Amino acid sequence: MASIYQINKGVSKPIMFKGLKAQYIAYLAIGLVLLLIAFAILYISRVNLFIILPLILAAGTAIFMITFRLSHRFGEHGLSKFIAKRNLPSCLKFRSRQLFLKLKSK
């Protein structure tokens, strides 16, 4: 009795959709939902439709372009690494040696 098993070859690969990698899919979805909410708020507040449509279309195009550019530039984990590296201090300054002397005495 030979058993047939399927091999999952893409188990450790990141999720990709139309060129977007990993968390950028969620960023795009959140941006589109916010655009939908903005459209609804503007429409309910009786702003002219000829003003709303170009505004929403321009914002949607910008969201798509920025999301795809970030996905292509940084990849799966690169954006979080970039933000973390920006938050590192350039140098550490100590005004006394007491901290290091206490470490040595223990």
Automatic annotation (TrEMBL):
Q: Which UniProt keywords apply?
A: Membrane, Transmembrane, Transmembrane helix
Is Membrane there in the keyword field? Answer: yes
Segments traversing the membrane: 24-44, 50-71
**Family annotation (InterPro entries):** DUF4133
What name has this protein been given in UniProt?
A: DUF4133 domain-containing protein
